[in-house]
TrEMBL record:
<keyword id="KW-0443">Lipid metabolism</keyword>
<dbReference type="GO" id="GO:0005737">
    <property type="term" value="C:cytoplasm"/>
</dbReference>
<dbReference type="InterPro" id="IPR001849">
    <property type="entry name" value="PH_domain"/>
</dbReference>
<feature type="region of interest" description="Disordered">
    <location>
        <begin position="64"/>
        <end position="85"/>
    </location>
</feature>
<dbReference type="InterPro" id="IPR039034">
    <property type="entry name" value="INPP4"/>
</dbReference>
<feature type="compositionally biased region" description="Basic and acidic residues">
    <location>
        <begin position="66"/>
        <end position="75"/>
    </location>
</feature>
<protein>
    <submittedName>
        <fullName>Type I inositol 3,4-bisphosphate 4-phosphatase</fullName>
    </submittedName>
</protein>
<feature type="domain" description="PH">
    <location>
        <begin position="19"/>
        <end position="178"/>
    </location>
</feature>
<keyword id="KW-0378">Hydrolase</keyword>
<dbReference type="GO" id="GO:0016316">
    <property type="term" value="F:phosphatidylinositol-3,4-bisphosphate 4-phosphatase activity"/>
</dbReference>
Length: 1000
């Protein structure tokens, strides 16, 4: 039977550990109905009495791997490949379902007597089997009753004899167990229905589904919360799942009204967090509770084991008090007598204490004005897109109260806008070099090496323009960079899966402060890969080789070109009398700017470097000697001329004995000296480029691209984080106090294989930002706060970047302008299966060294702060963090917990990331949110362990982070392998059914 039912399709693509048997099969005479048809290649999965089959196209078999769980691996030892089924290739499958209700298995074997003694079911003879395949086949006969009893026979061919025997055993045994439980369930149900506790009009027990109870919120004025104590019924399973169904009726009705069912809980004393809504209570009400043992969660199959009845008199609708009740749970034995097997407790509370449905949140505006934050549904602003909102209510058994976790997640259009702006500055810088080579040098020095260099930079310029255009076009149809798009070259400048995550706790109609964090994929260059990293490793470690020397000269030449352009503009402003020279203050100010730019060029290159690169050595073939061709002066003499020019200018300015004509000789000498320095650096750059082989030029191009993509990607994320916090007074005040912007990255990458290279890429990018990026805040007095904050790029060179944020402000006590530095710190704790391979047998690994280094910087930052250094709570948290880092313990997620705590105390920004900020990041963020809820409410995680795990499972299954997964891969499944997930820390494991093997 071919089916397209989505729940059953989802069951077929569920985790392998949910199935009793799975594997490759060839099936003949099924579906197609032809007795002469060729066997169809299928993949079968057995779950209880359901046999699910996927027919796969022949041409897709080579592309699709199939997986069998290690415990159920039925291939012969000589098989080379495991089986894996991938949900993202669902379009290649045609899925069928066989329901094994009434069937026989016919074992086709030359020596059938060997099998008769081992089977508890009928083995029939088969005469029309192909002798060549007898020992690998079995027939499945389904008996169907459609007017008259008919049969359908399906022949299955397995890959081995052992595989065939296991298929037969599993089909028979698992189906038998399923029907045994089903029979037990029906038997218990029939005995319960015969039990009549009352002799009044309510004896006629019928059931109706009242959808208006659940949908009509106006009639829902009470909520019921349920728990059970010490269930003593004998159940084979050591740890069983239980749920409770609730029914209600009053004296005026003869029909039971179904209220709802709790979630399944694995405990002998279950505490159910799901609160059930009740209709209006106007009369005496009778409640019936049915306790079920869940034996098949995916198929929603459970059997009744106990019941309870309770009558409640006149509970008023306007009663705001919590009413608590208790009664016994009874079961029936085979003789029909009742036995007490536990206690059932429940409470009724006013619906006014509970929130409205997910789509609405009704709170007075004055409440939010007093608390100074927006409604959750209004969190989107000029920077972020429309958010995804989720809310979940949980029951606290101690005081019979409830709390709600509100989640909010949104992406931002800035992940495309900011890279476009930064690429525009890269274009200007590249254009400046091309113009310098083409206009200034090619006309006076024509050689093959210069043409090659010009060709190289023209290609870089065209590529940069192409990246910018493609990003702009991509942003029209996408709101963020999905984890599926790691490889495209133009997207290497865009952060992966950047989102903002908010969490707020509601308790008794009061709201907590907001927990805000961000998530982003590791800053790395996926396009170039991580296989051949020797050149990049040499680059980051500054090993002297041709490519690295060429890069160093390129950085210096770029700096001189930018500074020369700035100085020329300032000198031209004076020469053309655009500024009033007679105004002494303006003249002095402009010369101070010129002097500052000139000082940056002094000693930019040493005399030894120029002599070694410009000498016409035997391994460098250039048509003529550069020193003679360019008439270059010694570099130390150039520096002296530059200093002498300014000594002359400063003397004239200080005495105020100057005119436009008296300053012109100094201007000419200064221009000549700077141009001479530019020619010298150009000669050094050309010489180093000419020394490189074709292979080294390719490596140099990759180094340049990797550097630029990492810088733009990481800087984009930092700019977005800062922009989002500009309206936060605590953030601004902390920056003003410390002159540093603290950003803490909680990283979940392992330190082996390719993830170690990703981590090194990320460290390189953040170290670069810390060293070369300067942040300026300009506070603009504005009476109208509707004006948006914005930013601009004041300088963008390989050795210096300055970004200015312009902030409208009513506050008068703030300075007009402050300059500060970035302080990005990385704390890494690998949690996946690869992190298990990281050991310290051969000395400290990257993770331990990194965490200790980041802690030292964090400790120094706090000690330097007058506000934080004397805070006892911060000092104690730092001490705990230091102790955890010194333990050098694998997968120690306690480090991340303490890092988050310290960051919150010092008003820092937290960014959680892994490879793609999707799976590991999601389980980490949801763990932070539940911890935040428990901390806010003063709950103990150990005492309320069940509530803690229930909240984790709810958020991970249906929360905003699952929506993040869906946005990235199109499925609501985390990309985790079941066996690998067992190596994760227990608190980082998502619930069963929320993950599967996906390649993302």
């Amino acid at each position: 039977m071919h089916f397209e039912d989505e729940p059953l399709q989802n069951l077929f693509f569920a985790d392998s550990n949910l199935f009793e048997k799975e594997g490759r099969l060839k099936i003949e005479d099924i579906i197609v109905g032809s007795t002469k048809s060729k066997p169809i290649d299928c993949f079968g999965r057995l779950r209880a009495n359901l046999l699910l089959l996927a027919e796969i196209e022949t041409n897709s078999l080579t592309k699709t791997n199939f997986h069998q769980d290690d415990n159920n691996n039925n291939k012969d030892d000589e098989d080379e490949e495991g089986d894996e089924i991938n949900g993202k290739e669902m379009s290649n499958f045609k899925i069928y379902l066989l329901i094994l209700n009434n069937f026989e298995i016919k074992n086709i074997d030359d020596d059938q007597n060997n099998h008769r003694n081992n089977r508890c079911y009928k083995i029939a003879e088969n005469d029309d089997a192909d002798d060549d395949r007898n020992d690998l086949c079995f027939d499945l006969v389904l008996k169907q009753k459609i007017r008259a009893e008919t049969q359908r026979k399906f022949r299955f061919e397995c890959e081995s004899k052992k595989d065939r025997d296991e298929w037969i055993d599993r089909i028979a045994s698992k189906s038998f167990c399923f029907f045994k439980n089903q029979k037990k369930s029906l038997s218990n149900d029939s005995r319960i229905l015969k039990y009549k506790p009352f002799t009044n009009d309510c004896q006629q027990e019928t059931l109706v589904e009242c959808s208006d109870i659940l949908n009509d919120r106006d009639r829902c004025v009470k909520y019921i919360s349920i728990c059970c104590d010490d269930i003593t019924i004998s159940i084979n399973e050591p740890s069983s799942l239980f749920l409770v169904k609730v029914f209600q009726r009053n004296n005026l009705l003869k029909q039971w009204q179904y209220v709802g069912a709790t979630e399944p809980v694995r405990s002998r004393s279950p505490r159910f967090s799901q609160c059930l809504p009740l209709k209006t209570i106007d009369h005496c009400d009778l409640f019936k509770f049915e306790l079920f043992n869940v034996i098949e969660q995916h198929l929603k199959f459970a059997y009744l084991i106990a019941f309870a009845y309770l009558e409640i008199d006149h509970l008023q609708n306007d009663d705001n008090q919590i009413k608590r009740f208790q009664t016994g749970l009874c079961s029936l034995d085979s003789s029909g007598s009742t036995n007490l097997i536990g206690k059932l407790k429940f409470s009724l509370s006013s619906a006014k204490k509970f929130i409205e449905p997910m789509s609405s949140l009704s709170v007075s505006s004055s409440f939010y004005e007093k608390k100074s934050f927006k409604l959750f549904e209004q969190e989107s602003n000029e920077f972020f897109n429309e958010p995804i909102n989720r809310k979940f209510t949980f029951f606290i058994d101690d005081n019979h109260s409830n709390f709600t976790i509100h989640e909010n997640m949104c992406d931002t259009k800035l992940v495309f806008d900011v890279p476009i702006i930064l690429l525009d500055h890269l274009l200007k810088s590249e254009s400046l070099i091309v113009r310098l080579l083409q206009n200034d040098f090619l006309t006076i020095f024509d050689c093959e090496q210069l043409k090659n260099l010009l060709y190289f930079h023209n290609n870089c310029l065209k590529s940069c323009e192409e990246y910018q255009t493609k990003i702009r076009n991509w942003s029209v149809y996408n709101s963020f960079r999905s984890s599926k798009f790691k490889e495209p070259k133009f997207l290497q400048f865009v952060p992966i899966n950047l989102h903002k995550q908010n969490c707020r706790i509601e308790y008794e109609q009061n709201y907590s402060s907001q927990m805000t964090c961000y998530s982003v994929g590791a800053f790395t260059c996926h396009h170039l890969g991580f296989d051949q990293m020797d050149d990049w490793r040499s680059f980051t470690e500054k090993v002297p080789n041709n490519a690295n020397i060429t890069w160093a000269m390129f950085v210096k030449l770029t700096k001189v070109a930018h500074q020369t352009e700035n100085i020329s503009k300032l000198l031209s402003a004076i020469d053309e009398q655009r500024l009033i020279v007679g105004n002494h203050a303006d003249t002095k100010s402009i010369y101070e700017k010129i002097h500052s730019n000139v000082n940056d060029l002094i000693d930019i290159v040493t005399k030894e470097e120029t002599e070694s690169l410009l000498s016409n050595s035997s391994d460098l073939v250039i048509e003529s000697n550069l020193l003679e061709e360019f008439l270059l002066e010694p570099v130390d003499l150039i520096y002296l001329n530059m200093k002498a020019c300014f000594v002359d200018i400063e003397v004239k300015i200080s005495r105020e004995e100057y005119s436009f004509e008296t300053l012109q000789p100094s201007h000419r000498k200064l221009r000549n000296a700077i141009n001479s320095l530019c020619r010298t650096l150009f000669g050094c750059y050309l010489s180093s480029f000419a020394r490189m082989s074709a292979k080294e030029i390719v490596a140099y191009e990759k180094l340049k691209f990797r550097h630029e993509s990492l810088v733009v990607q990481s800087l984009t994320a930092i700019i977005i984080f800062i922009l989002d916090n500009l309206n936060d007074d605590s953030f601004i005040n902390t920056v003003i106090e410390n002159r540093k912007i603290l950003t803490i990255f909680k990283v979940l990458l392992s330190c082996v294989f390719e993830e170690a290279q990703m981590l090194k890429d990320m460290l390189y990018a953040l170290d670069y930002l810390e060293e070369f990026v300067s942040i300026v805040f300009s506070f603009k007095a504005n009476n109208c706060l509707s004006e948006q904050s914005t930013f601009k790029i004041n300088a963008f060179r390989n050795d210096f970047i300055e970004i200015e944020f312009i902030i409208p402000s009513k506050t008068l006590d703030r300075p007009n302008r402050i300059e500060c530095e970035l302080l990005p710190l990385v704390f890494d704790v690998g949690i996946n299966q690869q992190a298990s391979l990281t050991t310290n047998l051969f000395g400290p690994n990257l993770q331990d060294v990194l965490n200790k280094k980041s802690f030292e910087k964090l400790n120094y930052y706090i000690n330097q702060s007058l506000v934080f250094s004397n805070d006892e709570i911060i000092r104690n948290s730092l001490k705990d963090l230091d102790e955890e880092i010194k333990k050098v313990k694998a997968k120690n997620i306690r480090i991340l917990e303490l890092v988050g705590k310290v960051t919150k105390l010092i008003n820092g920004t937290t960014i959680t990331c892994c490879k793609s900020a999707k799976d590991r990041t999601s389980v980490s963020i949801t763990l932070d949110e539940v911890r935040f809820a428990f901390e806010t409410l003063g709950l103990n995680q150990e005492i309320h362990s069940h509530l803690f795990q229930t909240a984790l499972d709810k958020l991970r299954t249906n929360g905003t982070r699952m929506e993040n997964v869906f946005k990235n891969v199109g499925q609501r499944k985390y990309a985790f392998n079941y066996l690998f997930l067992l190596t994760f820390p227990a608190e980082m494991r998502p619930p069963s059914g929320s993950f599967c093997d996906l390649e993302t």
